[in-house]
């Protein structure tokens, strides 16, 4: 059970802009009176000695990582998986109309722009530049799909944008004390193609006992990625990204560091 008046999130390896995304999405989603989900209320960002802190209200309850525990045989329950998928479906359908003006203005976040982040860009964020709006997003991704020879018919970029949490890990979702689902950590969130959430979940490092029930529930709620999309991105885009794209230099640097450290022992 979370206690106390405020929680403090330390930026650590996150850019301040990531905390700004978090806060902007919290402010937007807290306008909801949904019976399905809760979001912490952000109080502000504090900068101190090179560190940034996002101060927010606590949500009472337990994270899903605590609920499923460390027992490798304990999967995410069907009930929890279904409730999480129902929250994502509600946000995607935007029944309350919170997102329409942003989507119609071609915005990617409540701040309008988006810094590419998330598991689709694993093992490193593609931080080449800010992406200004949904038209710029199509340009940004199309260039990468062209270089990796991704079939745009299998991986469409011109669909109507929907809310993407993008960070559906067990540490980022809660069962609140009032039985609602708590949503945490929005630095990977933006308004993007409907297939993005499911593929981001597919690329998550979370264990299968979390991923499989949640993917099944999302499929039942009509949020599975189209046929062929996962293989297309796995076999072409991710392969290119790691071998030739923005992640290449980072991985090479990490490998060189590991080799040099091993030689120094």
From TrEMBL:
InterPro entries: Aminoglycoside_PTrfase, Kinase-like_dom_sf. This is Aminoglycoside phosphotransferase domain-containing protein. It holds the Pfam family APH. Residues 5-211 form the Aminoglycoside phosphotransferase domain.
């Amino acid at each position: 059970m979370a206690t106390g008046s405020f929680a403090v999130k330390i930026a650590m390896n996150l850019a301040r802009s990531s905390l700004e995304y978090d806060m902007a999405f919290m402010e937007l989603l807290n306008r909801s009176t949904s019976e399905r989900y809760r979001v912490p209320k952000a109080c502000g960002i504090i900068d101190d000695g090179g560190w940034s802190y996002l101060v927010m209200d606590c949500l009472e309850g337990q994270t899903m990582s605590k609920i499923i525990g460390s027992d490798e045989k304990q999967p995410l329950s069907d009930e929890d998986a279904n409730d999480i998928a129902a929250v994502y479906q509600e946000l995607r359908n935007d029944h309350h109309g919170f997102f329409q003006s942003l989507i119609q203005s071609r915005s990617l976040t409540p701040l309008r722009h988006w810094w590419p982040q998330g598991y689709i860009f694993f093992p490193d964020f593609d931080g080449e530049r800010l992406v200004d709006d949904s038209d710029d997003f199509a340009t940004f991704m199309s260039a990468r799909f062209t270089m990796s020879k991704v079939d745009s018919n299998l991986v469409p970029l011109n669909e109507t944008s929907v809310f993407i949490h993008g960070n559906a890990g067990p540490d980022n979702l809660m069962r609140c004390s009032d039985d609602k689902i708590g949503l945490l950590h929005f630095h990977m969130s933006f308004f993007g193609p409907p297939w993005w959430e499911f593929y981001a979940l597919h690329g998550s490092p979370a264990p299968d006992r979390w991923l499989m029930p949640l993917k099944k529930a999302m499929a039942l709620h009509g949020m599975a990625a189209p046929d062929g999309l996962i293989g297309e991105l796995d076999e072409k885009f991710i392969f290119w990204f790691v071998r030739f794209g923005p992640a290449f230099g980072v991985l090479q640097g990490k490998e060189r560091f590991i080799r040099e450290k091993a030689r120094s022992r």
